[in-house]
Amino acid sequence: MSAGTVAGTVGAVLASLGVDTAFGVVGSGNFHVTNALVARGVRFVAARHEGGAATMADAHARMTGRVGVLSVHQGPGLTNALTGVTEAAKSRTPLVVLAGEVTAPRSNFFVDQAALAAAVGAVPMRVDSAPDAAALTAEAFRVARDGRRTVLLNLPLEVQALPVSGPSGDGDREAGPVRAAGAGGSAGLAGRTGEARPLPAGPDREEAARLAEILAGARRPVFVAGRGARTARRELEDLADLTGALLATSAVAKGLFRGSPWDLDVSGGFASPLAAELIRDADVVVGWGCALNMWTTRHGTLVGPDAVVVQVDLDPEALGAHRPVHLGVTGDVARTARAVADLLGDGTAARPAPGAPGATGATGGERGGTGAVPDGAGTGVVPDGAGTGAVPDGAGTGAAPGRAGYRSEALALRIAREVRWRDVPYADESGDGRIDPRTLTIALDDLLPAERVVCPDSGNFMGYPAMFMDVPDEGGFCFTQAFQSIGLGLATAIGAALARPDRLAVAALGDGGALMGVSELETVVRLGLRMVVVVYDDEAYGAEVHHFGPDGHPLDTVVFPPADIAGIARGFGFEAVTVRAPGDLAAVARWLDGPRERPLLVHAMVTRARGAWWLEEAFRGH
Ligand SMILES: Cc1ncc(C[n+]2csc(CCOP(=O)(O)OP(=O)(O)O)c2C)c(N)n1
Question: Between the N and C ends of the chain, which has fewer C-beta atoms within 10 Å?
């Protein structure tokens, strides 16, 4: 089938729109469209399971900031991909899924593919005629990119073969505004072609003024940045400098403020004791591009009873969706932060009268939780505008002087010493041929190069890599957990590794998730990826064991006999090491220092006497 067909046109259009990588599993229904992509220079990454391919495309899109492309066969090719597609849709990953489609209900391949897409929150579209093929493909791309949607572009087999006259996908394509395209479509988002993006929405002036007013009166503000803030570090840091805010993120945005002395790391179940204490003591919490859901707020317990809660989001429907907020601001995060900073900077925002609560930068020592800050050690009342004087050397960002707010020299010291999980004392429980997962993860954190992308799967073990492994920035963590599926971690790491070849990809898996996604070990080897796969093996679905064990339920359904996961990995072509004690990690150091000819799997036999402490919290959500 040549470029002069619908299938050829679809591939050519996507290539002309800048797609350079696509993932998938090829069958007869997507053979021609995939080859059309390849013929236009797109790299096609063949996965071993569509579920893996979908998550690779999702992770690749997240880590490059570009539209991902997945190509699957009709029927089972799509149903196999659905878990990964659902994760992408829930995460608002811009992704175009190309799927062959049979439209005759009597075909054994038939399922209602549009209904499947709608059911998981993706946007269904269909190329149903040759003359429309190019425009519809361009539209699918724009809906994905501008609406941050996962789009299923169904390609009926009989339509794919139709001839297309005229140019098929070369050069710029121009088309009208994006049409509403199914469940929750992106009506109103003006579309443009190529990498050009429509200007993100600015905030409503009144809402921005209200936020400026709230921040002007805040004494202990905390910013919590989410997925929607991943490109807005500078703007948020500038505003935080002006207002004396501390900085935290949701799990998906982990690493965003790395290097700032005011970085509390992740808010939520993964928050360290100090981070939790400081967030709980905030008088103003602003969620930036962040859902403020039960995970990020620990079921609301991280938000103090008197805290004023503000949420800023591009999507007005996100405002207050998970918890009540005092103020919702519709707008792009960076633009809103800048607008509020401008209002504060030129004094437009109302400032509290001198002497009124919040008029001065009294810092954390004032309220219960931060009692460890010594009296007077930089925590005294700091006059407006003098705030940055309290910031230790190197801590400033060069922004205009602001209020001290929550910040003080003493607090910066405390954050530096205590905010990381690995600095929280614990009793090592290693022994009897099993290593404490905290000890394992801290040792790996020391060994692995700082330039890394950490990709955790789900399960009881998940908190260890998420909490004890540092990441260099928000591009150092890829968290495909919006659907809370196990088995996505390895594919996530493959997508991230391809997106960031400059970094070491680290997949962190439980034995359950590792074996669920095991077929993609072959993909790692075949692609020549030099990544590290860490398996926290407790020979069980530990999350279920620790969920139900305490109530005395039988656990035979969730406990497994030992599996030689290191041997399995060697069979796929990995180098592998089994770790039962810290000394066994010398083999990891040797691999890192060596030529890294093959990827490495670390099969860690971990202690399993108790569930991770954050899991108990998570179970409250079930
Ligand atoms: C696809 C899918 N199936 C089942 C579950 C339920 N589940 C959550 S955690 C878990 C156990 C994971 O086991 P493992 O990967 O070994 O990690 P561990 O909990 O032992 O640390 C299961 C089965 C799920 N979240 N997703």
Answer: C
Report how far ligand 1's centroid is from the alpha carbon of 622 (Å): 14
Three-state DSSP at 618 gives helix
Q: Is the CB of 543 under 6 A from ligand 1?
A: yes
Report whether residue 487 contacts ligand 1, using a CB cutoff of 6 Å: yes
Q: How many residues does the chain have?
A: 622
Over residues 54-108, the pLDDT tens digits come to 999 999 999 999 999 999 999 999 999 999 999 999 999 999 999 999 999 999 9
User: Is the CB of 611 within 6 Å of ligand 1?
Assistant: no
What's the CA gap between 457 and 534, in Å, rounded?
A: 10
Establish whether residue 544 lines the binding site of ligand 1, counting it when its CB lies within 6 angstroms of any ligand atom. Answer: yes
> How many whole angstroms from its chain centre is CA 366?
35
Q: Which residue has the tokens 């004094």?
A: 347
| Cβ–Cβ < 8 Å for 457, 514 | yes
Work out whether strand 150-156 and strand 95-101 pair parallel, antiparallel, or are unpaired.
parallel
Residue 188 burial (CB < 10 Å; 0-12/13-18/19+)? Answer: exposed
Q: Would strands 150-156 and 263-266 be described as parallel, antiparallel, or unpaired?
A: unpaired
> Of the residues 55, 80, 455, 458, which should be mutated to test ligand 1's pocket, given the most ligand atoms within 8 Å of the CB?
458
Gap between the Cα atoms of 138 and 174, Å rounded: 8
CA gap 105, 108 in Å, rounded: 8
Q: Please tell me the least confidently modeled range out of 162-166, 213-217, 464-468, 597-601.
A: 162-166
In DSSP terms, 309 is beta-bridged to 285
DSSP bridge pairs for 246: 222
**Residue 331 CB less than 6 A away from ligand 1:** no
Average pLDDT score over residue span 38-49? 98
As a whole number of angstroms, the distance between CA 341 and CA 133 comes to: 46
Q: How far is CA 512 from CA 226, 469, 480, 518, 559, in A?
A: 29, 21, 16, 10, 10
Nearest CA to ligand 1 atom 13: 541
DSSP letters along 68-127, please?
EEEEE-STHHHHHHHHHHHHHHHTT--EEEEEEE---TTSTT---HHHHHHHTT-EEEE-
Spatial distance between the Cα atoms of 359 and 273, rounded to a whole number of angstroms: 29
CB of residue 296 inside a 6 A radius of ligand 1:
no
| 339: region left, alpha or beta (phi > 0 left; psi from -120 to 50 alpha) | alpha
The b-or-e profile of 226-261 (16+ CB within 10 A means b, else e) is bbbbbebbebbbbbbbbbbbbbbbbbbbbbbbbebb
Query: Burial code of 30-45, b = ≥16 C-beta within 10 A, e = fewer?
Result: bbbbbbbbeebebeeb
**Residue of 507, 528, 508 lying closest to 599 (CA atoms):** 528
Q: Which ligand 1 atom minimizes the distance to the CA of 536? A: 21
CA 486 to ligand 1 center in whole angstroms: 5
Q: Does residue 363 have its Cβ closer than 6 Å to ligand 1?
A: no
Amino acid identity of residue 324, one-letter, is P
H helix or E strand, kind and range, residue 578: strand 575-579
C-beta of 445 in contact with ligand 1 (< 6 A) = no
Bridge partners of 328? Answer: 311
| CA 62/CA 359 separation, integer angstroms | 41
Cα(388) to centroid(ligand 1), Å: 46
